[in-house]
Amino acid sequence: MSRPLPQGATIGILGSGQLGRMMALAAAPMGYRTHIYAPEAGPAGRVASAQTLGEWDDEAALRAFAAAVDVVTLEFENVPVATLDVLTRAGVPVRPGARVLATCQDRVAEKTFLRDLGVPTAPFEAVHDADQLAAAAARLGRCIVKTARAGYDGRGQAKLESPADAAMAWASIGRPQAAIVEGFVPFSAECSVLIARGADGETRAFEVVHNVHRDHILHTTTAPMSDPAVDTVAAEAIATEIAQALDLVGLLAVELFRVEGPTDLRVNELAPRPHNSGHWTIEGAATSQFAQAIRAAAGLPLGDPRRIVSRAEMTNLLGDAIDVTPSLWGTPDVYVHRYDKGAARPGRKMGHITRLWR
Ligand code: AMP
After folding, report:
1. pTM summary value
2. CB 239 within 8 A of CB 193
3. CB-based pocket (< 6 A), ligand 1
4. What is the mean pLDDT of the chain?
C-alpha cells in the first residue's frame, strides 16, 4: 500500500453539498486541506481551502484540479465516469474509482451486480418504455418503477398497483431512457450499514442503524438498531461482501429492508460515499463517518467506528424546519447542524439535529 498522505496534502472532493462540507470539516484536524470541484458553488466550497467551479466535462479545469490535489474522493455518486477517467489519466488517484461509480450510479447495474454476487434484493427487471413496464408489472404485481439514473430522495419513482398504472407511472417519472421496476418489498423496518475499506483491503463497519423515511426522504436514524428482529451480524456481513467485491477504497452505505421470513434482509440501495444515515457518528461514534472517509482517501489506518454513547438519534431538518427554536441550541446533548445552503425549499435537506443519550 502507498504511504499515507502527509499533513498539508490536499484532498480533492467532487461535489459541493453538505456531505462534502462535513468531509472538509473532518479533514482539517487531520492536517489536510480540501479542494472542492463542482459545477456550482455550494456549502462545501464555503469551508474548503479551495474550490474550482467547473462543469464535469471541462477537461482543462479537471486537469488543473488534478494537478492541485494529491487524491480525489467524492461526496456525490452521479459524477460522470468520464470525469473520473480524465482525473485518473491526469495521474491523480481517485478513491472510490470509476468502476465503483459505474455500478452505483445506475440502479440496473447496481441490482444486477448484487444479484450476481448472490445478495438478496427485491425482484427486479430493466424496462425502457411504458409497454415493457406494463408487462413487468404483470409479472411482479405491486411494484415501484425508478429511473435508472440520477434519482434520489424518492424523485424519479412511482408506485404501480397494477399494469393499468404503467402509462401514468412512466409519464410521471419523465419517460426516461432506462428504468428499473422492483417488486414492492413489504418491509417491517429499514436499516443501513456504513462500511469503510482502506487501500490495503481492511474493512471497518459502523453498526447497523434504524432508518425511518417520510415521503421517501430519510427522517430519523437511530443507533443502536431498535428492532431486535434485524440480524445485524448478517447485515454487516452483506456490507463487507459488497465492499470487497467492489474493490472499494472509501466509504459505502448499504441500505436494507427487513422483511418477515428466514432470509430476512434485502439490499435496497448502495451509495459509495458518506450517507445521511451516518450523521449520528459525528457526536455518537469514536470516529465520524466523515473522518473515516478522509482516512480511507488519505491512506491512513481506519478509525474506531464504535458508538460511544448509549443511544443517538439523528433527525433531518427539511425546508423551514431549519429555523429551530433557540431552546434547542440550549438543550444539553442536542447538537444542531446547519448546512448554510441558502433557500429553504420544502423537502430540501437544510441541516440535522443529533440527540445523544450518554
Ligand atoms: P430509494 O430511493 O430506492 O432509496 O427509495 C426511497 C424509499 O422508497 C425507500 O427508503 C423505501 O421506503 C421506498 N422503497 C424503495 N424501493 C422499494 C421497494 N422495492 N419496496 C418497498 N419500498 C420501497
Report:
1. 0.96
2. yes
3. 122, 144, 154, 182, 184-185, 190, 213, 216, 255, 268-269
4. 96
